[in-house]
Design goal:
CATH topology of the largest domain in chain A: Alpha-Beta Plaits
Largest sheet of chain A: 10 strands, mixed
Radius of gyration of chain A: 21 Å
CATH superfamily of the largest domain in chain A: Pseudouridine synthase I, catalytic domain, C-terminal subdomain
Shape of chain A: globular
Oligomer: homodimer
CATH class of the largest domain in chain A: Alpha Beta
Order of helices and strands of chain A: EHEEHHEEEHEEEHHEH
CATH architecture of the largest domain in chain A: 2-Layer Sandwich
Distance between the termini of chain A: 32 Å
Chain lengths: 287, 287
């Protein structure tokens, strides 16, 4: 790549994670990043760019509100704007890229690019977010089990006490060290601000957890949901969840819940993205 | 089978129709009836009973509110009530049947038996219904396309005029001959009472049609939805939908919509089921 100026595009993406080995590219496995970058290579023909993502979801995890960015050269933007196919008209490069990506066979129908836009100055999909929001769906014995929703809903054999779960989830909020609820990764901090953790039953009785944080460490959402489910079964109580966190040690007192119940539903960016990205980068370098 | 008295059980069933060649048993294809009857044979060991269903859904069509019945002998009920597996306790035969059917591998997770109950005197899953209700889901260009819901949602390239669709759907209601909107079947009447046909957008913009009738003739829901979608694209108008019906001839002016957007959501039974079944049978014999 030369030093020519690049234009950063923001991609808003949804996927059914069932048939993917997660977001991050891997040599021999079908991944969301791998498929999208292959599609970009097909569309742009040469110098295929790489994607930077807000949430590197694990194998089996879904997304309805994933965000990524990609940097394109002026020549690549021009190529996109050119009429494509007989009788076609020139098109905005962003609109053309959305249309072309959604038409690529490799993405089948389990990935959908909702939107492609020119990113604001200083936007960084990974470093600009103020928060990530996830949902986790559990159909317990009291819920109506809908086979049409089974790919993103965990079927749980017991009936769960949603009031106990709600109360104890609320007590967990705040800026804390979540080491007990994270799978350790070298060099990654386990200090995060949990801003929201709430449970509700939808109209079919399915339990839905919403979790929001500045960022989550690895497997943190599924661990917190597993601890919460243990409270719902009256195997643990809210006080013990706080005790586990204080001990900062992984424990076998609860189970990390399966990946397929989890969906990344929103990534929130601030008005002034450039300042936010610089701030986040500085904090991570310091940690 | 001997002439011993039989107990009729009602089964409330949901399925993802994607991997089924419809409800009705077929020699070499995976069907919902075929899988459920094989599961019954496994559970009951001998003299496997057959299922009678409210809605014989086509290949690819889903159900969240399907109803079927099955007649069991006293010996079969006793067998179900016996403790199953080490340390198990005796169980109500209905509860045992639900549990055993949902545990059978052949049903995988794409069929779920919501409930098994002893049917009221005179109940007949096929002849007692007052109505069947279906939903059809279309994500047009104005909707948010969620890959997690793609198995029961049709992605449509144009933006549809839901007001025009709603208005013309309303004009179609009533007792009429629907021959123009049915795939003909020998000996089957095409006179039906369309009691409800309404469109709405859900919170993600997906268009959902609800259709309710005493019964639907073959492919009638998908034909009506197809005609309605043509109105939504301003290719047909409400008056023409009535004209097509009056001509009582199949037409190529609209397309029958794909199976996978369709879900049987409810079968309604009257308080006095025995009287209703006798009435329906008499009417069908007379036609």
């Amino acid at each position: 790549m030369s030093n020519e100026p690049l234009t950063r595009l923001r991609l808003d993406i949804a996927y059914d994670g069932t048939d993917f080995a997660g977001w991050a590219k891997q040599p021999t496995l079908r991944t969301v990043q791998g498929e999208l970058e292959a599609a970009l290579a097909t569309v742009l023909r040469k110098d295929p760019p790489t994607l930077t993502v807000a949430g590197r979801t694990d194998a089996g995890v879904h997304a309805t509100g994933q965000v990524a960015h990609v940097d394109l050269t002026a020549a690549q933007l021009e190529l996109l704007a050119k009429p494509h196919g007989r009788g076609a008209k020139p098109m905005e490069p962003t609109r053309a890229l959305k249309k072309r990506l959604n038409g690529i066979a490799g993405l089948r129908s389990d990935v959908h690019v909702h939107d492609v836009t020119i990113a604001e100055e200083g936007f960084d999909a990974r470093f600009s977010p103020l928060f990530r929001r996830y949902e986790y769906r559990v159909a317990d014995a009291a819920a109506t089990r809908n086979p049409l929703l089974r790919r993103h809903t965990v079927w749980y054999p017991a009936t769960l006490d949603v009031d106990a779960m709600t109360e104890s989830a609320d007590e967990l909020l705040g800026l804390h060290d979540w080491a007990a609820y994270c799978r350790p990764r070298e060099g990654a901090t386990t200090i995060r601000e949990l801003q929201e953790f709430a449970w509700r039953r939808d109209e079919t009785g399915v339990l839905i957890a919403t979790l929001k944080a500045d960022a989550f460490c690895h497997s943190m959402v599924r661990a917190l949901v597993g601890a919460s489910v243990s409270v719902g079964e009256h195997k643990l109580d809210g006080e013990r969840l706080l005790g586990i966190r204080a001990e900062a040690q992984r424990t076998s007192e609860f189970k990390v819940m399966p990946a397929h119940g989890l969906t990344l539903v929103e990534v929130g960016y601030p008005e002034d993205v450039a300042a936010r990205a610089a701030q986040t980068r500085a904090r991570r370098d310091a940690s």
